[in-house]
């Protein structure tokens, strides 16, 4: 075999995807936040980003729980996830949430799905525990007061 | 349980207002037109029993403003300064208590429920001394002073431990059980037992049904749990003893073969063999001791000849010992660094495994959500864009990544194999660490011994003694080593005896596990479920259920809900598309008929003499005639409720605000009526 005849062939294999980048995973997470931890099933975008950020790691979740107990949000900044923005757009198109003046609100269809997700014990065990524990105590005002500090 | 009477007292600047009613032993109908306060009365009833979580919330905030802030009476607005609710209950033993709970009060918290041992409302007795109990505090269901704990004992119930979603155990809360007894009208008629508050109990609805039917699953589960915790203890004991043996042996430079790191029911003491590890070869301990004794004897012989030995011979020996020492310290260093590396990578792999498992869990959630989404006609669940209906990638960030991406099932498979691989790696590494520890121990021991010997020999050479200190030292070392090894042998023997005991416990545990019923439900349970099914079908038939042939409805043996061809029978939310299953589709009012049938059948089965269950014998329905229910159906519901032995039922209904509907629905039915004109809250008569 001459050297010229030696050929290496590469075949590209599919890469793994983070579970939270699956559209329905993120959408249902948003629905849960709206359903379990937001007053009137409504929340601002800023606040949704905060929850999305907090649900990524256990220590952030504990920070959020602390904030709900003390009524003071002691988080100076949090991440903005483009995946959440896309998930919200999808959810709006699926008519699971709708845009309102203050942010996003669950639709009736969204609520039904959220209730089913809440009932299903096999999914989001840790997340649900956290959201139920935090409850609706993280208010828009708490989020706003932190965000105000960013503008200075 | 019987609810004997209820009284609301609202103090206002115009005097005391409120209501006071007594309930019948069987059927009581609360009749009132819409917005007359029917649901206020009904919700006050639940609130008085500490069951307001069924309405959706904790504390007085679930109650309407009329009972806590202000109400209108004869065109005048009257402010409520304080209000409280009384409820008189009787249990199966005939004991009567009165509950008192504040709704709005400066002094008393709404978490406080006071209990009087008297018939204060209907018997006109003095209340007497109160016992204070508390609601909604952590541990309220378990602690003695918790109200729900008190009520549980009063009702003669003993609620079982059930599995929670996060893998632990919790008590089946009384509120969850009450969700099958009391149905409020806002959300209560949307599912079989719709209003179970979220406590993280796994399959709460099925657990409640099992409990009310008195199935033996909880006993089996309790035994299983005991066996589980036993086996955890067995595992722990075994590991602890095995670890002790290993460490003890490593200290003495030997290894004990045949002791698995995990419990083994077939273990006997013959399996455990103590071996001396020298480099890569192993010798049995007894042989090794023989070797040591021989060396001792030969040393003794040489000692006798020592006086004739020349200095050069001693020097030669010193050289050879020096070389040996060098070799050993190199070996020691090498094996110590191997051990450090191995331990570090073990930790690393263990962390990786935890991460991979979390990732796997999330992926499984994603898969489950996809199925759930498909049920709700979410287009993304089938990989289509909701706007343009084209195929889209199953990833939110697909546009910013290049190259193909795994689909969900492949990803799960990939993570699973990664987990399997990591588990194998870790167990291999653990073995390696264990072997390295033994090697390090052995070499360190030998190193120390050689050091001693060399020092002694040096002394010999310089002093020119008549008796070799080196030889004496070596002899002493051998003596000490032999003695230590013999003691070790005894200790290992004792530990191995303990392991044999643990192995026997494991065997017994495994045998007991085999003795548990294979199926979830025993034969007796099965017959109860069949009885339940019969009652359910009979009820559904008499209530006029038409969406499917009643004879084909079965109680699903896994979830205990009515189903048709294994599909849960319920109202399907109609959405576009042919996905809706005709067979499992019930019209809205027909689904409510099924809920009636279900809740009533629970009580009927429980009250049946051949299969006594745990049902407390009350049913509270708020506006059961949902979705313009046919009058005939309402009539047969009331008839069934009134005719049921050992059942107190309280039904609040508006009867479409029509007298003729009321007459038709209650025709020939024995009942006690509660109704009022105008508003529910009115001046209370001052007791004379």
Quick overview of this protein structure:
Chain A is mainly alpha-helical and 152 residues long. Helices cover 55% and strands 7% of the residues of chain A.
Would you write up a description of this structure?
The complex is a heterodimer of chains A (152) and B (688). By secondary structure, chain A is mainly alpha-helical. Chain A has one domain (19-151). In chain A, 55% of the residues lie in helices and 7% in strands. Chain A has seven helices and three strands, in the order H-E-H-H-H-E-E-H-H-H. In chain A, a hairpin with a 2-residue loop joins strand 2 (97-100) and strand 3 (103-106). Chain A starts with 22 loop residues before the first helix and ends with a helix. Chain B has 688 residues and is α+β, with helices and mostly antiparallel strands. In chain B, 46% of the residues lie in helices and 16% in strands. In chain B, a hairpin with a 5-residue loop joins strand 9 and strand 10. In chain B, helix 5 runs parallel beside helix 8 (408-463), helix 6 runs antiparallel to helix 9 and helix 7 (311-375) runs antiparallel to helix 8. The two termini of chain B are 31 Å apart. Residues 572-585 of chain B have low confidence and may be disordered. The interface between A and B is large, with 42 and 44 residues.
Question: Which key terms come to mind for this protein?
Answer:
heterodimer, A: 152 residues, mainly alpha, three-stranded antiparallel beta sheet, 7 helices, globular, B: 688 residues, alpha+beta, five-stranded parallel beta sheet
């Amino acid at each position: 075999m001459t050297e010229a005849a030696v050929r290496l062939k590469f075949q590209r294999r599919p890469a793994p995807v983070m579970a939270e980048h699956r559209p329905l995973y993120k959408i249902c997470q948003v629905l849960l936040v709206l359903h379990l931890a937001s007053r009137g099933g409504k929340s601002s975008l800023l606040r949704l980003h905060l929850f999305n950020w907090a649900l990524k790691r256990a220590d952030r979740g504990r920070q959020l729980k602390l904030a709900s107990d003390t009524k003071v949000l002691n988080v100076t900044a949090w991440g903005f996830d483009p995946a959440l923005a896309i998930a919200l757009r999808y959810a709006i198109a699926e008519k699971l949430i709708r845009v309102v003046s203050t942010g996003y609100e669950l639709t009736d269809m969204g609520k039904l799905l959220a209730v089913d997700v809440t009932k299903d014990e096999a999914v989001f065990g840790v997340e649900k525990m956290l959201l139920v524990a935090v409850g609706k105590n993280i208010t828009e005002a708490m989020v706003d007061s932190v965000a105000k500090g960013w503008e200075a | 349980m019987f609810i004997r009477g209820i009284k609301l007292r609202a103090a206002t600047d115009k005097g005391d207002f409120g209501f006071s009613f007594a309930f019948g032993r069987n059927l009581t109908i609360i009749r009132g037109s819409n917005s007359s306060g029917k649901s206020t009365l009904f919700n006050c009833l639940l609130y008085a029993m500490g069951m307001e979580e069924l309405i959706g919330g904790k504390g007085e905030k679930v109650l309407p403003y009329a009972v806590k802030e202000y109400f209108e009476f004869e065109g005048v607005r009257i402010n409520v300064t304080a209000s409280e609710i009384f409820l008189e209950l009787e249990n199966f033993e005939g004991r009567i208590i009165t509950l008192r709970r504040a709704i709005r009060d400066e002094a008393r918290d709404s978490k406080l429920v006071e209990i009087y041992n008297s018939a204060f409302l209907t018997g006109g007795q003095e209340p007497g001394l109160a016992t204070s109990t508390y609601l909604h505090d952590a541990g309220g269901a378990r602690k003695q002073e918790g109200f729900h704990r008190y009520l549980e004992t009063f009702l003669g119930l003993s609620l079982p431990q059930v599995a929670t979603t996060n893998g632990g155990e919790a008590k089946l809360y009384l509120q969850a059980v009450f969700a099958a007894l009391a149905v409020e009208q806002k959300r209560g008629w949307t599912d079989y037992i719709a209003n179970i508050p979220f406590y993280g109990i796994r399959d709460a609805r099925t657990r409640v049904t099992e409990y009310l039917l008195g199935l033996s699953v909880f006993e089996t589960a309790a035994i299983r749990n005991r066996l589980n915790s036993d086996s955890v203890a067995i595992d722990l004991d075994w590991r602890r003893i095995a670890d002790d043996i290993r460490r003890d042996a490593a200290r003495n430079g030997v290894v004990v073969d045949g002791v698995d790191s995990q419990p083994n029911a077939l273990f006997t003491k013959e399996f455990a063999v103590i071996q001396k590890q020298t480099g890569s070869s192993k010798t049995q301990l007894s042989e090794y001791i023989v070797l040591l004794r021989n060396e001792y004897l030969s040393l003794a012989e040489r000692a006798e000849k020592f006086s004739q030995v020349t200095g050069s011979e001693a020097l030669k020996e010193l050289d050879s010992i020096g070389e040996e020492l060098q070799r050993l310290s190199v070996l020691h260093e090498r094996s110590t660094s191997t051990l450090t590396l191995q331990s570090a990578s073990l930790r690393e792999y263990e962390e990786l495994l935890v991460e991979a498992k979390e990732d796997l869990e999330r992926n499984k959630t994603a898969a489950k959500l996809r199925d759930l989404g498909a049920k709700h006609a979410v287009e993304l669940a089938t990989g289509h864009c909701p706007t343009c209906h084209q195929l889209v990638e199953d990833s939110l960030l697909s546009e910013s990544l290049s190259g193909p991406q795994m689909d969900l099932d492949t990803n799960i498979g990939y993570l699973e194999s990664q987990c399997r691989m990591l588990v194998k790696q870790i167990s291999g590494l653990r073995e390696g660490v264990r072997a390295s520890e033994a090697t390090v121990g052995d070499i360190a021991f030998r190193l120390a011994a050689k050091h001693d010997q060399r020092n002694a020999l040096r002394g010999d050479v310089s002093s020119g003694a008549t008796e070799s200190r080196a030889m004496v030292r070596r002899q002493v070392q051998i003596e000490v080593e032999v003695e230590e090894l013999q003691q070790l042998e005894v200790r290992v023997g004792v530990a191995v005896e303990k392991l044999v005991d643990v192995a026997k416990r494991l065997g017994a545990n495994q045998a007991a596990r085999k003795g548990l019923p294979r199926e979830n439900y025993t034969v007796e349970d099965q017959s109860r479920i069949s009885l339940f099914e019969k009652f359910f079908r009979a009820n559904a038939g008499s209530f006029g259920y038409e969406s499917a042939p009643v004879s084909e409805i079965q109680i699903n043996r896994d979830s205990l809900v009515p189903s048709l061809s294994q599909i849960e029978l319920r109202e399907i939310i109609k959405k576009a598309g042919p996905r809706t299953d005709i067979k499992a589709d019930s019209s809205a009012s027909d689904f409510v008929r099924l809920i009636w049938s279900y809740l009533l059948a629970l009580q009927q089965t429980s009250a049946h003499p051949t299969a006594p269950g745990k049902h407390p014998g009350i049913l509270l329905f708020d506006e059961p005639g949902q979705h313009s229910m046919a009058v005939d159906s309402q009539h047969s519901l009331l008839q069934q409720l009134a005719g049921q032995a050992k059942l107190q039922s309280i039904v609040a209904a508006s009867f479409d605000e029509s007298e003729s509907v009321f007459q038709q629905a209650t025709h020939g039915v024995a009942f006690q009526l509660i109704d009022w004109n105008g508003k529910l809250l009115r001046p209370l008569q001052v007791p004379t």
